Amino acid sequence: MAVKDYIRQRFFPHMWCQGCGHGIVLNSLLRAVEELGMSKNEIVMVSGIGCSSRISGYVDFHSLHTLHGRALAFATGVKMSKPELNVIVPMGDGDALAIGGNHFIHAARRNIAMTAIVMNNRIYGMTGGQYSPLSGFGKLATTAPFGNIDHDFDIAKLAIAAGASFVARTTTYHVQQATKIIKQAVMHEGFSVVEILSQCPTYYGRKNKLGDAAEMMEWFKNNTTPIGSKAKEENPGLIERGIFIQEDRPEYCDEYDKIVEKAQGGRV
């Protein structure tokens, strides 16, 4: 199948602002699915509420557009009932780490086989540019006109600490890397977290005087480096990208099946 075959073309043009990075994420996701040769019936996409969550409306997969912050809870139900399906959960700052933070850490802890794609644009874009758990100390937002005093999460460190068995980070500038990482995440048998730094020129970029979309993507190019590079040693402020962890661990659905088998066999 071609990339265009995975799109619900009747819902285009999309609702994202000009220059938004989420369309680039959608492109990388579709290319990953195409390269894996998956049929549309093998995939379920579950999303909550927000700019990033609109992706589920644009793909011609089985999809659920659910409650804000609860996408991983719904996705867990889908995976438990149909473990043979590939479940992909596109999320933003709030869905993943604010209202959805509890679901995030427990999905990671259980190591249930699904792929969480966290689009980190450091702002709540759909509802007017409020600061998020990822905005960062001192950054400006509509709800922080004098500067944000909350410190941000490191998504990769949080995911690893919570027990995710695949954790990676890339950016919308590094589109080929994004496609490659998403492919690996989808095929991984465990909870996969892919953080993608994504530009929001409308709210985050404008408020913090970071320029237009091209300039924000240039920032991703100049301020990130591959994991373990010498550049990181020389400049600790650089953001690392690549795969932080990829481990084989017992997967939740497989272990649940073993419990069912024991119960049906009458063994304690």
TrEMBL record:
One of its GO terms (biological process) is cellular respiration. GO terms for molecular function: oxidoreductase activity, acting on the aldehyde or oxo group of donors, iron-sulfur protein as acceptor; thiamine pyrophosphate binding. It comes from the Bacteria. Keywords: Oxidoreductase. Signal peptide: none annotated. Residues 49-196 form the Thiamine pyrophosphate enzyme TPP-binding domain. Transmembrane segments: none annotated. Gene3D superfamilies: 3.40.50.970. This is 2-oxoglutarate synthase, subunit beta. It comes from Desulfonema limicola. The gene is korB2.
